[in-house]
Design a protein that fits this description.
With 160 residues, this protein is an alpha+beta fold. The protein has one helix at 2-26, and strands at 33-34, 37-38, 49-60, 70-79, 82-92, 98-105, 112-119, 128-132, 135-139, 145-152, 155-157. Strand 1 and strand 2 form a beta hairpin. The radius of gyration is 25 Å and the shape is elongated.
């Protein structure tokens, strides 16, 4: 009889543990252990991010600045031969043909890149795009912000 009670007690504690773990997981709690054990990673909830600044100039083949060209900045995840772009920002070039886009993104993974696409709304010039190499200009402020990345993308658009 004593052995049955111990088995029943063990079974009940196992079920209670499973129930409590499920409830805590639904509420957003988890253990703070890393892959190799405690202390590998800071215990954070959410996704760390990086600030970015992308700037450049858009001109025609004659070197003249193009005003009012749409510049779209996208975050592109490259995985298993497929790309998943996500639009982050759209800006226009000024009278000097220059643009600047800034923001934040969770770009800590080497599979992410920033893509800049330029499009002339007047239809005179062909669209163009490039993946921008970002350089870390400042290190992270804390565990959440991993720093600021800076990139430059200049374009020379051809007539259609």
């Amino acid at each position: 009889m004593m052995n049955v009670n111990k088995n029943l007690q063990k079974w009940m504690l196992t079920r209670l543990n499973l129930l409590l773990s499920s409830v805590l997981a639904l509420l957003g709690f988890s253990s703070c252990e890393g892959i190799d054990g405690p202390g590998d990673y800071p215990c954070l909830y959410g996704t760390p991010y990086t600030h970015f600044d992308v700037k450049g100039t858009v001109q025609n083949a004659d070197g003249q600045a193009l005003n009012g060209v749409n510049v779209t900045v996208k975050s592109v995840y490259k995985g298993e031969g497929v790309e998943y772009p996500r639009q982050i920002d759209i800006v226009e070039t000024g009278v000097d043909g220059k643009y600047k886009s800034f923001g934040s993104w969770s770009g800590f993974n080497e599979r992410y890149t920033l893509r800049v696409v330029v499009d002339d709304p007047s239809g005179v010039y062909e669209s163009d795009s490039t993946d921008v190499k970002l350089d870390r200009t400042t290190e992270g402020e804390n565990e959440w912000c991993w720093g600021t990345d800076l990139g430059t993308a200049d374009f020379t658009l051809k007539k259609k």
